[in-house]
Write a structure and sequence with these properties.
7-stranded parallel sheet; 21% helix; Alpha-Beta Plaits; alpha/beta; Rossmann fold; 20 strands; 7-stranded antiparallel sheet
């Protein structure tokens, strides 16, 4: 296959912080236009309701009898449908995004085309299991941090265990996934109207891709590689390379999905006996609105349905650095915001991560690096990827030298179940405060900054995995002159609770492999995940500051309404940063 235009320019919008939000509903998930969820009063009413919809010439694009629900589109007479004796409620469908888009450009990195890395560093070989990239010092810190190598002494995962990746798809043409993906279920075929423009079908034609059910964003493939990249003697392998993956494609290249599509993917996974669903999409609902409350309850019913059939759902906690309480309710004011700041999600409900029964995963970093008395000019010229932070900056990193700190973006709170490595910028502060580089391959060999003072080697501060060979959003690096990697395959380094989530999903899969008596027993699997987690202490990452309205370090823009900077005097408590602890693969399979 000839790959053309493997990675277009990343064009990501910073979607939060552009205006002050004065009410909770301002941060709620947006409603879709012309698409409605019709909920029957009971299971006995569903068949009649479904028949009535068809006879009324309504266009039904999706039927979910498991939760007594249909989805209709087009010229929908909501009042007439609502008056039907079999119908409990008609609510607008809504749109969720890659978890979630606040600080999206910060999380995914600067705009990059496909980047070829040339040259090499001296490799300090270690006697470890896994594929060659695990021997590159500092690169695969995340797998070592959760003791994946120790787990492999007992199991690399059983072939009958399956994890569904509910995301932008999986690139089954990638050498790390070509033998790992056993099935593709494309749920975007029920999208009406289509969310991404152009559609993946049209994009596949433009790029010369072999199919339109591949991953044209890159996010889903990163997650799939982290979970189960193949142990094949080249590149990297996943945490559970012996298990199999199912692509639950809920989104096209733009990284957005209808709530009904997400619900349908969960139901399908449960009906088809998948062990785990890993999802790093999400958003927030305002349950004071009766329609949004009804949607939240559909999630509750769907998660319970999956639980009863033995499918564990693992989800990202979110990237707003806000406090999440019972049921996913936001119980603190203010979210991580770029200037002018001030957005407030207080009282909203996070989903799906916050929904009862879902494993909600926060994110930890590698190690927090310190500032310097003097920084070379070329470090500061790197803009959002500055690799040296002056000690004279207004906003300084907390917990310098400490590993496993809560990342500056991760949500936290009593609702968090476990933590996983999500990676962070080098200084664990936002980009607007000169937060630092992601690490290799942005720095190290043939520095993309054009400077001569970068000496991070293979060290990564964010988390490294594959991405899709057809990615349009996630930056792609090909590493043809690196002997550890295959030619012409895309790899990437990004951060987020999206990246923490597959670590937990993979560990659940390893538990199911090592303890087959626990397979499809969600309660037992989650209990084992929690009880085996590493007890992490000493978090120094602060909460958001409501009172620090000073200018940012990078752009010098004022934070007019607060919640742009971390407050190092108010660190997040360990129990709320990590939940039961940092997932531990080796302990989990004992």
């Amino acid at each position: 296959m000839t790959k053309r235009s493997l990675c277009a320019v990343v064009a990501l919008l910073v979607l939060a912080g552009l205006a002050v939000a004065s009410s909770a509903s301002a941060g709620a998930t947006p409603a879709a236009s012309g698409r409605f969820i019709v909920i029957a009063r009971s299971s006995s009413d569903y068949a009649a309701m479904h028949s009535n919809l068809s006879s009324a010439a309504q266009k039904v694009v999706l039927s979910m009898p498991q939760i007594n629900t249909d989805v209709v589109v087009g010229n929908v007479d909501v009042a007439s449908l609502s008056s039907n004796s079999h119908v409990m409620r008609v609510i607008p469908d809504r749109i969720e995004t890659i978890a979630p888009p606040t600080q999206k450009a910060d999380l995914f990195g600067a705009s990059k085309t496909k980047t070829a890395i040339r040259g090499g560093l001296t490799t300090a070989k270690e006697k470890v299991g896994g594929d060659p990239a695990l021997t590159l010092p500092g690169l695969m810190w995340n797998l070592h941090r959760i003791n994946a190598v120790g787990a492999w002494q007992k199991t690399i995962g059983a072939g009958e265990v399956t994890v569904g990746v509910a995301d932008t798809g999986l690139d089954y043409t990638h050498v790390e996934l070509q033998n790992q993906v056993t099935q593709v279920e494309d749920f975007t075929t029920t999208e009406d109207p289509v969310i991404c423009d152009p559609s993946d079908h049209r994009l596949a034609h433009q790029l010369g891709a072999p199919a339109d059910d591949l991953d044209f964003n890159g996010h889903g493939s990163w997650i799939g590689g982290n979970i189960a990249g193949e142990l094949n003697g080249t590149g990297i392998n996943g945490i559970a390379p012996g298990i199999k993956l199912v692509s639950l494609k809920i989104s096209g290249w733009c990284g957005s999905a209808y709530d009904s599509t997400i619900l349908n993917a969960f139901l399908w996974a449960a009906d088809h006996g998948l062990d785990v669903v890993s999802i790093s999409f999400g958003g927030y609902l305002d349950r004071s609105d009766s329609n949004q409350d009804a949607l939240y309850n559909l999630y509750v019913s769907t998660v319970q349905y999956a639980h009863d059939l033995g499918t564990t759902i693992v989800a990202a906690a979110g990237n707003e650095h806000t406090r999440i309480g019972d049921g996913g309710q936001v119980i603190s004011h203010g979210i991580l915001d770029i200037p002018p700041g001030g957005t407030d999600y207080f009282g909203l409900y996070e989903l799906p991560g916050g929904v009862p029964g879902v494993v909600d995963v926060s994110a930890t970093g590698n190690v927090v690096k310190g500032t310097s008395a003097n920084c070379p000019d070329d470090a500061l010229a790197a803009g959002g990827f500055t690799w040296c932070k002056p000690a004279s900056d207004r906003h300084q990193p907390a917990g310098v030298g400490k590993k496993n700190q809560l990342t500056y973006y991760s949500n936290y709170g009593p609702r968090i179940d476990v933590a996983g490595p999500g990676g962070a910028r080098k200084f664990n502060v936002p980009a607007a405060d000169r937060g630092g580089t992601p690490g290799w391959p942005y720095t190290g060999i043939n520095s993309l900054f054009g400077g001569t003072s970068v000496s991070d080697g293979y060290h990564a501060w964010e988390a490294f995995s594959i991405t899709s060979n057809w990615a349009q959003e996630i930056p792609c690096f090909t590493l043809n002159d690196q002997p550890e990697f295959p030619d012409d395959q895309c790899y990437s380094i990004i951060q987020g609770t999206s990246m923490a989530t597959p670590h937990a999903s993979a560990v659940v899969a390893l538990i199911a492999s090592a303890h087959p008596e626990m397979r499809h027993d969600v309660d037992a699997l989650v209990a084992k995940l929690k009880s085996s987690a590493q007890k992490v202490t000493g978090n120094k990452t602060g909460k958001m500051s409501a009172t620090d309205t000073s200018n940012t370090d990078l752009t010098n823009l004022p934070c007019t309404f607060g919640y742009c900077h971390l407050n190092n005097n108010q660190p997040v408590p360990d129990s709320e940063a990590y939940g039961a602890g940092l997932v531990d693969a080796a302990a989990a399979v004992r």
